[in-house]
Specification:
Radius of gyration: 24 Å
Shape: globular
CATH class of the largest domain: Alpha Beta
CATH architecture of the largest domain: 3-Layer(aba) Sandwich
Number of domains: 2
Largest sheet: 6 strands, mixed
Length: about 325
């Protein structure tokens, strides 16, 4: 198992009399893409700010892996982000929800300015700017004023500014908020490229279905606590024993198909556009019945597949405290 790069230990955070985070603990491993999910106002942004030392909790600590020389050998130890701010600032880059670049500067000037904050040599800064402009597909716009960028280009420039000092950790707060599906996909592709270079990525997002394919592990924030930390597949397996059968047939008279299915096998169903989605804990039995019914009803099967409910489905169920068997373990 990869060594942790951050250790969040028993963090409690209040704003006035309101507790935002209550005894939150988890580790973030080197080289992973770690997602933080939670309802609006759950404390995701607050937690990110605490992890990098922007904000102090009333209780608890956040430790980061600190490299130093000891007896002529490289040793690893952990230090508090609140006591070693200068050191921790060098290992992370932060792209917040609100762009932090200067709108009247060009893209290249922004990168030069942010690079100057980290005492980079002229050669290192030049190399990093060239690399990032190419990585973010912004090379052709380096002399364009940032105020003239589109939303997707703004997000890419902001991430580039956060990466200018080649940090070990990149922190992204809602990196695809307010972007259309095409631009969101572009950002996630960039995130994967950055991660493949060895950068640890910590992100908060409400696009949960997209996180299934990008995050190695996810922390679920609910009721001021982290109620689970695991891979997306592990979370889906843990919180859902029910399977989804997706059927598309022609002519698609699903209202005639459903009454013929054995009710005790069906937990729920939905008609989503041209597809019928059946929730069941007996998928093999439903499959068998479906094929017989389709043949009798003269329905041509176009597509049929089985899978777990999405991370979105599970998170909604957890957030609403539902005890629906579709989204929970069977007792």
């Amino acid at each position: 198992m990869t060594e942790p790069i951050f250790k969040v230990q028993d963090v409690l955070k209040r704003f006035g009399e309101h507790i935002i985070l209550d005894n939150v603990s988890f580790d973030i491993r080197k080289g992973e893409i770690f997602g933080i999910i939670g309802a609006s106002g759950a404390g995701k942004t607050t937690l990110l700010n605490i992890i990098v030392g922007f904000m102090r909790p009333e209780q608890g600590d956040v430790l980061f892996r600190f490299e130093h020389l000891l007896d002529f050998q490289k040793a690893m130890t952990f230090r508090s982000v609140f006591k070693k701010q200068e050191a921790v600032k060098k290992i992370y880059g932060f792209a917040s929800q609100v762009p932090s670049f200067y709108r009247n500067l060009t893209l290249k000037e922004n990168l030069e300015y942010f690079g100057s904050l980290y005492d980079l040599s002229a050669d290192a800064l030049k190399t990093n700017i060239e690399t990032l402009l190419n990585l973010m597909d912004l090379k052709n716009y380096e002399d364009l004023a940032a105020k003239n960028l589109s939303g997707g280009m703004e997000r890419r420039l902001d991430i580039a500014c956060a990466l200018i000092h080649d940090p070990a950790v990149l922190v992204l707060d809602e990196p695809t908020a307010d972007l259309d599906p095409v631009l969101r996909n572009h950002i996630w592709t960039l995130v994967k490229k950055i991660n493949k270079k060895g950068t640890t990525i910590i992100l908060a997002s409400h696009h949960l279905t997209e996180l299934e394919d990008i995050c190695s592990r996810i922390a679920i924030l609910k009721d001021k606590k982290v109620i689970d930390v695991a891979s997306p597949d592990s979370i889906k397996n843990k919180y859902s024993k029910i399977q989804e059968i997706h059927l598309e047939s022609y002519p698609g008279n699903y209202n005639k198909i459903l009454p013929k299915l054995t009710k005790k096998y069906i937990k729920n169903y939905e008609i989503r556009g041209s597809k019928l989605v059946i929730f069941t804990d007996k998928p093999q039995k439903v499959f068998h019945e479906l094929f017989l019914i389709l043949e009798k009803k003269k329905e041509d099967a176009i597509d049929i597949k089985i899978g777990k409910p999405s991370l979105d489905d599970i998170f909604i169920a957890l957030s609403k405290d539902k005890k629906d068997e579709i989204h929970k373990n069977n007792k």
